[in-house]
Amino acid sequence: MALTFIAATGTDIGKTYITCLLIKNASKMGKTVRGVKPVISGFDENKINESDTGHILDAMGQSLTMENVRKISPWRFSAALSPDMAARREDTTITLLPLIDFCNNLDSDTPTLVEGVGGVMVPLNETDTTLDWQAALNAKCFLVTGSYLGTLSHTMTALEAL
């Protein structure tokens, strides 16, 4: 299966924008690319259309239903916090193995973009980060960076970690 992990130097940098752009461009060329965002925080099921998951579903031409949301974002948290803190607030924990299994068990015939959450080193739980998740998938990585003062340091740090 062709997995590409979409990582970033931080939150609100443009992972979803790039994920959707890649999906739409592939579609224009007659190719199908799936996008998933397995972990999302700050999710409000009454505002699917405003969420990263909603944007990805829209890019794939899928309806914005909770059924479709569950298919691409099984770990959803209402608090707009780091995944570990958002999960803790809902009395749960994100464990790495089910997250890896979810990504690896997707239809292998369809190239898939796995959108991460936050930046490269954002904690998923007390021991694992998005970097651990990406490494465990053994996926290619597409790093999205910002265009602000300080981005060079953030980008070089993320590249060093990757």
Span between termini? 21 Å
Oligomer: single chain
State the secondary-structure class.
alpha/beta
Task: Write the H/E string, N to C.
Answer: EHEEHHEHHEHEH
CATH superfamily: P-loop containing nucleotide triphosphate hydrolases
- Count of folded domains: 1
Mean pLDDT: 94
Q: What global shape is seen?
A: globular
Q: Biggest sheet, strands in spatial order?
A: 2-5-1-6
Classify the fold: give the CATH topology. Answer: Rossmann fold
Characterization of this structure:
This protein has a 4-stranded parallel β-sheet with strand order 2-5-1-6, sandwiched between helices. The mean pLDDT is 94. 40% of the residues lie in helices and 15% in strands. It has 7 helices and 6 strands, in the order E-H-E-E-H-H-E-H-H-E-H-E-H. Helix 1 runs parallel beside helix 2 (52-59) and helix 5 (96-104) crosses helix 6. It has a single domain (3-161), classed as Rossmann fold, CATH 3.40.50. The chain is globular and about 35 Å long. By secondary structure, the chain is an alpha/beta fold.
